[in-house]
Design a protein that fits this description.
Layout: E1 6-8, E2 16-26, H1 32-48, H2 51-54, H3 58-69, H4 80-89, H5 99-111, E3 115-119, E4 127-131, E5 137-139, E6 145-147, E7 153-156, E8 161-164, E9 169-170, E10 183-189, H6 195-212, E11 214-217, E12 221-224
Parallel strand pairs: 1-4
Antiparallel strand pairs: 2-10, 2-11, 2-12, 3-10, 4-7, 5-6, 7-8, 8-9
Length: 227
């Protein structure tokens, strides 16, 4: 059961967030079988899209438009799914972090919808999609601090920013570690991303998790901005 809610405090009708709750997680390293599966998926991605075509992909354009509307330059601050896909299209591999993170990165590159991961034991209160406060500091995974200008779209709990820029950077403070047992996997949708696309992305991601990650997984929870 998801012991939190998610609300939207931004005036962007149609924003969507879907959440999969992963409980009883036993984090490990990706297997050789996953690596072979990943290679096949890379081939599928590269046969369906070129780097040039990615520039005009309507899904990525919807996130770029969203970023511009919050005063964020998407050519300098790419949404995570586009950054991952571009890496694959350039013939590069994705990083080896853990089985869960590796699966989330592959799923995001495949269905083009950004994914964030939150250690639920480090969440305080409910989740909210809001604009950052001026001077608010966010520390991304790896330790780099970002001082917010007060315009950026973020995901936060009652105390802190959890994700900067609608799934560009996850937080160092809530990152998944070997000790994480209960994790929220969040898929972030832009206004032009339909409910059907989100459901399909959830199904793709859930299939990968079920195949390659040792955990108990919930059905997806869907939240949509209505105002």
């Amino acid at each position: 059961m998801l012991e939190s809610s998610l609300r939207f405090e931004v005036d962007r009708p149609g924003l969507r967030v879907s959440i999969l709750l992963l409980d009883e997680l036993n984090l490990g390293r990706s297997s050789r079988e996953f690596e072979e599966y990943e290679k096949v998926t890379f081939q599928e991605i590269r046969s369906s899209l070129t780097l040039e075509e990615a520039k005009d992909d309507p899904t990525f354009r919807s996130y770029r438009d969203l970023y511009w509307s919050f005063g964020m330059d998407p050519t300098k601050l790419r949404v995570s799914s586009e950054a991952l896909l571009r890496r694959v299209l350039k013939g590069m591999n994705l990083w080896r972090i853990s089985d869960l993170v590796d699966v989330a990165n592959l799923a995001s590159a495949y269905h083009k919808i950004p994914i964030g991961l939150v250690d639920d034991s480090k969440r305080v209160g409910d989740l909210v999609v809001r604009t950052a406060k001026k001077g608010e500091t966010f520390v991304r995974i790896g330790g780099e601090a970002i001082v917010c200008r007060g315009r950026e779209i973020v995901l936060a709990d009652d105390e802190k920013v959890i994700c900067f820029g609608y799934a560009t950077h996850d937080s160092e403070g809530t990152k998944v570690t070997k000790d994480s047992r209960r994790v929220l996997l969040l898929l972030y949708g832009a206004p032009e991303v339909s409910h059907e696309m989100m459901v399909d992305a959830c199904e793709t991601t859930a299939h990968m998790i079920d195949s390659w990650v040792d955990c108990r997984m919930s059905s997806p929870y869907h939240f949509v901005a209505s105002h």
